[in-house]
Amino acid sequence: MIGIDVSKDTLDYCIIQTENHEKKEHGVIKNTKHSINKFLEKIKLEDFELSLEHTGHYGALLTSMLSDKKASYFLINPLDLKKSLGIQRGKTDVLDAYRIASYTISNKHKLKPYNLPSRDLLKLKAFITARERLVKILVQLKNSLKANNILNKTVSIKLLLNQEKKLIRSIEKSISEVETQMKQTIESNPELGKSYNKIIKVIGVGPITAIKCIVETDNFTKFTNPRKFSCHCGLAPFPYQSGTSVKARTKTHYFRDKSLKSILFKASSTAIQHDPQLKNYYNRKTKQGKHKLTVINAVANKLVLRIFAVVNREEPFVKFVA
Q1: For 66, which of 71, 129, 148, 311 could close a Cys bridge (C-beta 3.0–4.6 Å)?
Q2: Is the pLDDT of residue 253 over 60?
Q3: CATH of domain 2-110
Q4: What is the enclosing helix (H) or strand (E) of 51?
């Protein structure tokens, strides 16, 4: 087993024996196509399995090359690895590489070799991440503009106001261009287009919600169970109790995809306004004394169930009667 610690410029690797986790070899290579190619030729891929942490763009070149060579490798969640180690003292890149390899061997029974998403899915993920970043910047600029408009009544800062207005127009244009690129990517890929056209017909689900769901599920291959996807979003409630003395209210877990939960909450608010059945459900539950956010969370769960249902069958979404 080979564990690889990925960083921006280098890849630290550690080869350990599967039987006793004894270290056989370690080293460092550059995170470049030429160096990775030489390393993969040296180790003979058919003799080894590889494992690395999910580090975003820094590991993109390595995972792409491994997938092209049809190598078997595992992509480890950094949080799973950290929690499995317990109390640790000291940290080096070589030690991290050893820990990744050791963790993979010990937990191989519940790990699956990673399959790199299609190029179009990777593009969509980059676009949706860029859009989210631009939207945050736009909100900050608009809030700043509001504050400066108030200040302008006392102190003349017209130049600053004009600059912020110019930046806002520029960011809005960039967001529009990114959304156009996402739409073109969806239209150019029949599989993505098929899923998108099904999801978009669910009341409350707009283009951004549909694309975000497609990206986060790798077009519904990484998640096939809506309950597990709800857990990933932070929508699924869990009980909290121990014996007879500890019993707290049922609540969602703080480990979640915050951006996805936010998008699904917005979709739920729209669905409550336009879907008779969900509107009736929301009104009934709030009249019973349920907190509004708790009911919206339940509606978001219902949307997830509907999204997975329409993806997994050929029939289109049917609007329900209240």
Answers
A1: 71
A2: no
A3: 3.30.420.10
A4: strand 50-53
DSSP-based three-state secondary structure for 173: helix
Domain ranges of the chain: 2-110, 119-188, 215-311
Could you give the dihedral angle defined by the CA atoms of residues 314, 315, 317 and 320, in that order, rounded to the nearest 10 degrees? -150
The pTM is what? 0.80
User: pLDDT digit string (tens) for 213-250?
Assistant: 999 898 888 888 888 888 888 877 766 666 666 566 66
Rounded distance, CA 252 to CA 250, Å? 7
Number of H helices, E strands in the chain: 12, 7
Report angle CA 276, 282, 288 to the nearest 5 degrees: 135
Share of the chain above pLDDT 70, in %: 90
- Measure the CA angle with vertex 58, ends 118 and 137; round to 5°: 85
Phi-psi region at 279: left, alpha or beta (left = phi > 0; alpha = psi -120 to 50): alpha
Residue tagged 């969602």 (tokens): 252
Choose among 311, 300, 136, 131: nearest CA to 232. 300
Place of tokens 């997830």: 304
Q: Are strands 50-53 and 2-6 parallel, antiparallel or unpaired?
A: parallel
Lookup result for tokens 């951004």: 208
